[in-house]
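Handout, section B. The chain below has 266 residues.
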Amino acid sequence: MPVQPGLWSGSEAYERYMGRWSRRVAARFADWIGAPPQSGIIDVGCGTGALAAALLGTCDPARLVGIDSAPAFLDAAREQVRDPRASFAQGDAQALPGADGAFDVAVSGLVLNFVPDKAAMIREMARVVRPGGTVALYVWDYAGHMQIMRPFFDAATALDPRAREFDDGVKAPVCRPEPLRRLFSDAGLESVEVRAIDITAEFADFDDYWTPFLGGTGSAPKYCQSLDEPLREQVRESVRRRLPTGPDGEILLAVRAWAAKGRVAG
């Protein structure tokens, strides 16, 4: 089964909503995983290629294979990552292409919580990595220091309890240190580490913050798209009141991702 069908269908909308922040986290994550030069890397749920680009620039792999279930994202990745070492193909995170031990490193960025069988995804990532190789991923801290989303869902839920059905802070309890550590350990991975990656998100004004929520790509935009205009306007104004705003209307928010890595036994 692919990652939630239709949730991430628009590459341009995703770029405005999360892609620009994902690239900043990807660069720090690529430094942290410590992949040796000339490795073979598989990027599971490669999206528009933000993590692939960071890995190609930082880790100097011999080859990188990006897998995603969304054709629009794959097209965007091929357009944005024009490197002969990289290739991109459609596939399922829970049933990866590739033989056992075919790669040195398996990575995934901001995908785990959208996969129905998370344990199967981690097992598959470990399967396609050689003994002694690395499995690593990162996810947004939806329930905590993810200030792009938290004010939105806190405001929306106060006005409309149905918003909880879309809130990844509620729906994705795996996006915390201990569940991530347990998931890696249960898959047989060794020397498991979990760390926070913190960045800032800057918006010129409230419209710069709000407009991506109207794009329909991602949980919060999908919820926003489902509202009638009066309720959407109520949510908009409630969110505006909750956000810290500078003297010229600028908004500066904290954004955190949790990253985990482990070593394949053997």
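Note. The chain is about 40% helix and 25% strand. Compare this with the example in section A.
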